[in-house]
Write a structure and sequence with these properties.
By secondary structure, the chain is an alpha/beta fold. It is 40% helix and 19% strand. It is built from ten helices and twelve strands.
C-alpha cells in the first residue's frame, strides 16, 4: 500500500469534511478517493470518519490520525530531501588529499572555497605525498587527491591542473644571486635538493629530465621531504632548490631568482578514481584547482632591493677611542 498517498488523501478529506470538495482539491474523481479512505481504514483497523449523518465528521481515531499523518508526511519529505542532497553529493564526508608543502594561506582559502561549494558536506583534508594519495585512491580510502603532475595512474581521472613557474632558491651570498634571472645551464656544478623520488616518482624524474635538456646535470642530488629542511640545506650551501617564490622568501637569507623561459612548472592536478561513486568529486576538484591557481600565482617582477645579495657596510668611526 502507498501509505503516504493514502495519508495525503485522508488529510485533504479531514480538512474539507466533504468527499466531493476533497476530490476536486486533489484533482481526482470521488470514487477513487472514497476507495482510498476505505483501504486506509481496513489496513489500520479503525473507522476514521463518521458517515451516519448528512455531513461527515472525524472519529476519535480520525482526530488522532490527523497529527500523526502530518508528522509522518513531514518526516517523509525530510527523508526525500536528505536523500536528494546525499545523491547530489551535498551531504556526508569527502576525503581530500593535500600535499604537505601547501602553504597555510592556501589551505585556508581551500577550506573556505569548499565550505562555500558544499556547505553541508564534511571535508576531511589529509596531508599526504603524491605517492600516498595514489595508493589510498586505489584502495578507495581517499575520494580526491591533489598530486604533483605527471603521474602514471591509468585508472585515475585527472581534473584541471594548476601550474606555477618555479625559480631557483640559493644563498644570497652566491654570485648567481647577482643576476636578475638564471638559465638552468648557469647551475652547472651545483648540488640539487629534491624531495625523495618515492614521494612523487613522475615529478622527480620530470625535474631531472628538464634539467638535463637545458644543460644542468646536478653534481649530486640531495633529498629533503620537509620544506624547512630544504631551506636549511640551501642556506647551508648544500645545494640549490627549485621552489615557488613565496616559499623561498620565507627565509630572508635566501635569494629567489626566476628561470629564463620558465622551463620548470610545478603542476598540481586533482585526481580521483574512475570507479568513484561520490557525485561531488568533479565539482570539488574544480574548486580546488581554482584556489590553487589563485593562491600560487607568483610575483613576476623582481624587487629592485632584492636584485643583488645583501651587503653589510661598516662605517668608519672618525674618533678612535684608543687614542
Amino acid at each position: 500500500m502507498d501509505l503516504a498517498r493514502h495519508l495525503r488523501y485522508f488529510l485533504t478529506v479531514a480538512g474539507e469534511l466533504h468527499f466531493g470538495r476533497a476530490a476536486e482539491t486533489l484533482g481526482i474523481a470521488q470514487p477513487p478517493l472514497s476507495q482510498s479512505i476505505q483501504r486506509l481504514e481496513r489496513d489500520l483497523g479503525v473507522v476514521l470518519f463518521d458517515r451516519s449523518r448528512r455531513t461527515i465528521a472525524l472519529t476519535a481515531a480520525g482526530e488522532l490520525l490527523v497529527e500523526e499523518a502530518r508528522s509522518m508526511l513531514a518526516a517523509e519529505q525530510r527523508l526525500r530531501t536528505l536523500m536528494r542532497k546525499a545523491g547530489a553529493g551535498e551531504l556526508g564526508t569527502l576525503r581530500v588529499g593535500v600535499l604537505a608543502e601547501t602553504p597555510a594561506p592556501t589551505l585556508r582559502a581551500l577550506s573556505g572555497a569548499l565550505a562555500e561549494q558544499a556547505p553541508m558536506l564534511t571535508i576531511d583534508l589529509q596531508e599526504l605525498t603524491t605517492a600516498e594519495q595514489l595508493r589510498l585512491l586505489a584502495t578507495a580510502e581517499l575520494d580526491v587527491g591533489l598530486v604533483l603532475h605527471p603521474v602514471d595512474a591509468p585508472d585515475l581521472v585527472c581534473g584541471p591542473t594548476a601550474a606555477v613557474p618555479l625559480g631557483v632558491a640559493l644563498p644570497r651570498t652566491s654570485p648567481l644571486a647577482r643576476l636578475p634571472e638564471l638559465d638552468l645551464g648557469d647551475l652547472a656544478g651545483h648540488d640539487l635538493i629534491l624531495p625523495p623520488r618515492a614521494t612523487a616518482p613522475g615529478w622527480h624524474d620530470h625535474i631531472l629530465e628538464v634539467c638535463g635538456e637545458h644543460g644542468f646535470i646536478p653534481a649530486r642530488v640531495r633529498h629533503a621531504r620537509d620544506q624547512e629542511f630544504t631551506l636549511g640545506l640551501v642556506l647551508a650551501g648544500s645545494g640549490i632548490a627549485f621552489l615557488q617564490e613565496p616559499l623561498a622568501r620565507r627565509e630572508p637569507r635566501i635569494a629567489w631568482r626566476p628561470l629564463t623561459g620558465r622551463p620548470l612548472q610545478r603542476s598540481v592536478t586533482t585526481v580521483w578514481s574512475a570507479a568513484t561513486t561520490h557525485p561531488a568529486v568533479a565539482r570539488v576538484a574544480r574548486a580546488i584547482t581554482t584556489v590553487m591557481a589563485a593562491s600560487d600565482a607568483p610575483a613576476t617582477a623582481l624587487r629592485s632591493s632584492e636584485s643583488r645579495p645583501w651587503s653589510v657596510v661598516y662605517a668608519r668611526n672618525p674618533v678612535d677611542p684608543l687614542r
